[in-house]
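Give me structure tokens for this 94-residue protein.
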Amino acid sequence: MKFSDHKTITWLIFEIGYLNDAIILGDIISVKAGMALAQKKIDQAKRELSRDGITDSFFMMSSFGGRISLSYEYKYPDGFGVKCSRIVPTGQLR
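Here you go.
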């Protein structure tokens, strides 16, 4: 059985990946500034998840080697849960 994250989680991972690329390339001055932007993305993801009935969700981000790492956990209304710890996504760094 192949499992895919909820589409909102997939979007969030890509968005944080692009923020990490911007930090590495110098488009965003610091991880702290990037984390403020990432928090806005997390808040947006929580709103999107709640529209699909997923109200039990938890997100945590931290600085990891000058980049933003993400941990998350969420449960579908039927009780199926997903948990992922400390991923450091990257976008399309060239």
